[in-house]
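INFO  loader      accepted 1 record
INFO  loader      residues=275
INFO  predictor   begin
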Amino acid sequence: MSAREELDWRDLWRFQSALHPRYAINGLDYVRWTQYALAWPALTPRPGLRLLDAGAGSLGIFDAYLTDRLKCEVCALDLPPVADALRRWVARHGEPRDTFTAVGGDIRRLPFSTGTYDAATAFNTLGHLRNDGDTVALLELLRVVKPGGRVVVTVHYNRELRAEIFRDDAQGADGIVEPGLQFWVRIYNDTDLRRRLLEPAGGATAEVRYYGETSFSWGRLYYARRPPVLRLVSRCLRWAAPLLSSWYLREVPPEHLGRDDWMGCGAVIAFTKGP
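INFO  predictor   done
INFO  writer      dumping tokens
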């Protein structure tokens, strides 16, 4: 299959549903549909593309889609416990082992040689790294891609809100909410984007695209702390994620992202490595 200019979300939904019937109901989440669609033109997936997906998580639907439908070669990296869970997921679904591999490691110290990959991604990963970890990780991603290669990252963004959120009851390696598991995320504003990501990238050029909810905050329903019953209801509603995403989450100018919300607001940054 040749490269596509836009992500066909219907084809992706059919693919995840074919992996297992439960993914038709509880597959990729609300925000990821929009992030993948905005990142797609920068990645331009094509047969033979070597991609590093850092902070891949334990649910490999999108990476499996790239290897199966687009014939890309994907290495999915995350911390060892999460990578182990992803390996089990790959084994269950019979993905081609030679083109889809899961590796345990630290995004701040990537175990790959310079110029190994054609492209790299980090979806909602850099914002979970404390101190200067996000800057260090970005430079590592740029190091391991070839000259002219793309690095696409997504972060939570709010034009007026600068916050570092710390809470319990986060999701564990298999996507299950674990009471007492600590969760920390940085919300970027314009100053943070410039100082922590854009300026340190040096000779790499960058294109920033912003997305946000245009009306009702579905993001709060999906991600906010809530009673177990509502949590179950929101998980059961994931079947509607691609429809909700296409209706309520879209690319918007950054000046529209100034309210006191961050769950459905973000930036997709595509870096192109210099020669």
